[in-house]
Specification:
This protein has 347 residues and is mainly alpha-helical. The chain folds into two domains: 17-198 and 312-342, 3-Layer(aba) Sandwich (Rossmann fold), CATH 3.40.50.620; 217-310, Tyrosyl-Transfer RNA Synthetase, CATH 1.10.240.10. It is built from 13 helices and five strands. The chain has helices at 29-42, 55-58, 65-81, 99-108, 113-117, 120-126, 135-149, 163-179, 227-235, 255-268, 272-279, 284-310, 313-342, and strands at residues 17-22, 49-54, 90-93, 155-157, 190-192. The protein has a three-stranded parallel beta sheet. Strands 4-5 form a two-stranded parallel ribbon. The structure holds adenosine monophosphate and tryptophan. Tryptophan is lined by residues 18-22, 54, 57, 144, 147-148, 156, 158, 162, 165. Catalyzes the attachment of tryptophan to tRNA(Trp). Homodimer. This is Tryptophan--tRNA ligase. Belongs to the class-I aminoacyl-tRNA synthetase family. Its EC number is 6.1.1.2.
Length: 347
């Protein structure tokens, strides 16, 4: 893959921030620190924010139709509970703005098979039997490119696992601009993969990402866990025989310890270096309870607000309806322009 940024004329439109979370069940601490908390921090950065619930992406693997709408509301509730203000940020369900699917088709014809063949997430998610995976799972990253480019988003805050999809988005944008002789039409969006917790690891295995698909519930902290469960998971989290590291000590051979320090730093809005300096030489008997207290006090208000909102689906639905209308206000003129650029018939 080549990065078109070196040759393409610069995009000159306004800054826009956009991201999405799949509507596929329980959110965990990785989603909170790698995504939700970061979105909230960007809300007042001067650029409008678009946060959607990726329900079209969710159905690339089987979703129970009886649960999908509730899962969508739950992600919307998590956005609001994490501090996003629906009056400032546009929060909406992806499937409610039909231009996502329309642009995805057009970009499917821009993206190359060879580019998609390299996507590691498809390889991980399709497993041993890739011929049984849905075609949607394969073209998933193209739909993601459509999500981003439909709003001409310039910045996309995500966790580390989305880096490759963002690179693909830039390649698709560059190829569209070149193929259709529309220099600078789509921006080449910047991934914002920042902060101490861009890749939160499992509490049981420092080599595995914290993920909703891990069969062990002990491996992750769910946003729906109560205080006792959170504290117990942290107390039982895997560490090693050593003590807390000294500043400057390399931690590559202590991934579990490195992960807990990163979580502490991200939750407290401090740097890993500051946390290391504070706890250097102490045992985990001192560090783990401090981390458990911090996790409980940080997550409790989010969890409580999520529960309150989930008990009031009408309020969430109002936010989603209003968000979808505002999102379509940006997306519809862009898809109309794209269809013109591609040369489709127009009345
Ligand atoms: P998903 O639930 O897969 O739609 O992911 C939603 C967001 O959470 C994306 O920005 C991911 O990059 C981020 N994310 C998911 N898992 C982790 C993790 N373990 N650490 C940091 N960020 C994560
Ligand atoms: N693929 C992302 C994930 O699993 C979710 C997503 C879909 C997304 N569309 C997006 C993220 C557009 C950023 C921008 O985490």
């Amino acid at each position: 893959m080549t990065d078109a940024s070196a040759t393409a004329p610069a995009y000159t439109g306004p800054r826009r921030i956009l991201s999405g979370i799949q509507a596929s069940g329980a959110l965990h601490l990785g989603n909170y620190l790698g995504a939700l908390k970061r979105f909230t921090a960007l809300q007042d950065s001067g650029a409008p924010c678009f946060l959607f619930v990726a329900d079209l992406h969710a159905i690339t693997v089987w979703q129970d139709p009886a649960l999908l709408a509730a899962q969508t509301r739950e992600i919307a509730a998590a956005y609001i509970a994490s501090g996003l203000d629906p009056a400032k940020s546009t929060i909406f369900p992806q499937s409610a703005v039909r231009a996502h699917a329309e642009l995805a088709w057009i970009l499917n014809c821009v993206a190359r098979l060879g580019w998609l063949d390299r996507m590691t997430q498809f390889k991980e998610k399709s497993g041993k039997h890739k011929e049984r995976a849905s075609v949607g799972l394969y073209t998933y990253p193209v739909l993601q490119a459509a999500d981003i480019l439909l709003y001409k988003a310039t910045e996309v805050p995500v966790g580390e696992d989305q880096k490759q999809h963002l690179e693909l988005t830039r390649d698709i944008a560059g190829k569209f601009n070149t193929d259709f002789n529309a220099p600078g039409y789509f921006p080449l969006p910047e991934p914002l993969i920042q902060g101490p917790a861009t890749r939160v690891m499992s509490l049981r295995d420092g080599a595995a990402k914290m993920s909703k698909s891990d069969p062990s519930d002990q491996s992750r902290i769910n946003l729906t866990d109560d205080a006792d469960t959170i504290a117990s998971k942290i107390r039982k989290s895997k560490t090693d025989m050593g003590v807390m590291p000294e500043p400057g000590e390399g931690l590559d051979d202590r991934p579990e310890v490195k992960n807990l320090i990163a979580i502490y730093a991200a939750l407290s809005d401090r740097t890993r270096e500051e946390i290391t300096a504070e706890f250097a030489g102490q045992g985990f008997g001192a560090f783990k309870p401090a981390l458990a207290d911090l996790a409980v006090s940080s997550l409790a208000p989010v969890t409580a607000e999520m529960r309150r909102l989930m008990d009031d689906p009408a309020e969430i639905d109002r936010v989603l309806r209003d968000g979808a209308e505002r999102a379509a206000g940006i997306a519809d003129p862009v898809i109309a322009e794209v269809k013109k650029i591609v040369g489709f018939w127009q009345a």
